[in-house]
Amino acid sequence: MPHFTNKKLILLLVGTIFLVALISFSLRDRQNASVPEQFIKDTVGFAQSIVAKPANYITGIFNDINSLLNTYEENKRLKMRLEDFAVLQAEVNTLQSENKSLKELVEKEDSLKDFDPLKATVIARNPDQWEEKIILNKGSSHGVQLNMAVMTANGLIGKISLVTPFTSEVELLYSNNPNYRVSAIVQGEKSDVFGLIEGYDTERNELILKRIDSSFKVNKGEQVVTSGLGGIYPKGILIGEVTEVTTDDYGLTKMAYVKPAASFSMLEDVIIALRTSISVDGSDGSGTNADLTNGTENETTDTNEGEE
Amino acid sequence: MIRFLIPFVAVVLFLLEPEFALFSPISWGEQTLVLVPRFVILYLIFISIYYSRKRACLYGLIFGLLYDVFYIDIIGLYSFLYPLLCFVAGSTVKFIHQHLSVTTILSVVLVAIMEVFLYYFFHFIQFTTIPVSDFLSNRLLPTIIANLLFLIMLGWAFKYLINARLLQRARDNS
Known about the structure:
The structure holds two protein chains of two kinds.
Chain A: H1 2-28, H2 35-69, H3 71-106, E1 115-125, E2 133-136, E3 149-151, E4 156-163, E5 168-172, E6 181-187, E7 192-201, E8 206-212, E9 223-226, E10 238-247, E11 254-260, E12 269-275
Chain B: H1 2-21, E1 26-28, E2 31-33, H2 39-50, H3 53-72, H4 78-91, H5 100-124, H6 132-173
Antiparallel strand pairs in B: 1-2
Membrane topology (chain B): Multi-pass membrane protein
Keywords (chain B): Cell membrane, Cell shape, Membrane, Transmembrane, Transmembrane helix
Pfam family, one (chain B): MreD
């Protein structure tokens, strides 16, 4: 009998070593899927998209009922805004045509703002929600690439973190990954203020905008949009609204809490932004949680590497 | 027919999990509650207790691997935990009475243990930074309640299906 248990023990030991090796191997490179992985992902994704259709339909009905109940109040509120809207529309039209003619005048063709929208449907959300991830039904065969911006009609929600031929994974803004940064602008009254969206406060459910120059003034209620300077995201996608401004841990720069404009639950249809102007390949620590900052968290000098 | 129905139900539950995850997180007053649907493993624990431990471990390995590749991108996590849980559940059969309510409670307890293990794993690899108290109140408790509700609603159906399969097998053998 002791001989038998020894054998079992060795088997258990070898199994544990194999398991740890497998886990650490797959943790190392999570942004590229190997061929068998891609095959499994596409197959499951296909089955998932079939199931997602009736499920989306049913959640759609729930949403409709919900909005039907709020119709009266919403209508009242919208009517009030309608009058402002007509004025705003006229203003936008004149500005647009003016902008166009000015652009022609200086022969500036592409802008950081331009992007081709690609509509995609959410087919699944990571069921154990340790990482905030959703899976879309568009993949590299539709032109999706790594690190593209993903948004809803309300605002930015995340970026593409993994692509297979027919599916893609989105890492949401609600991420603990320290290398997940979005270069952003606070649209102030007088001038724009630059900062980086870095991290997420789980207690407040809000994003944290760091590295704001302390000589600039940021007010509560101002809007935060992407700057387009990180190299991948188009410019001007709404991220959220400033709710509180404080100085950061070391008192050198300011930081602000930003309430995201997009809602992150019940995501159904999203837009992937294919930037038209040349994009720079921003490295992102290869999608791992490795600390790229090398302990220089609050020195703005050598952290450009991980932007966006 | 019933022969294929058992794996088919597992596949359907596997595909339904992420759809239910779309409802989460839920805002409850000040708190955000995270509900994690664990339908597949609950069903596999039922199979392990009422049908066959070996079969359950095999299904656990397959679905765990699919789960790892499709959602988590860390191969070896769920494909280890699922068969392990099935194995433990199947081993309790000798000691514990197999009444439906006992099985339900046992399944939920096992899932809770798995959640705690996963919390420490993801904490270890720094995917999450939430403190233990937050994990217990905002994640574990809602997850246990949601999965318990699921089992109360569908546990009898699982048992009915498995019993039908056992009867059929007995008839084939005789």
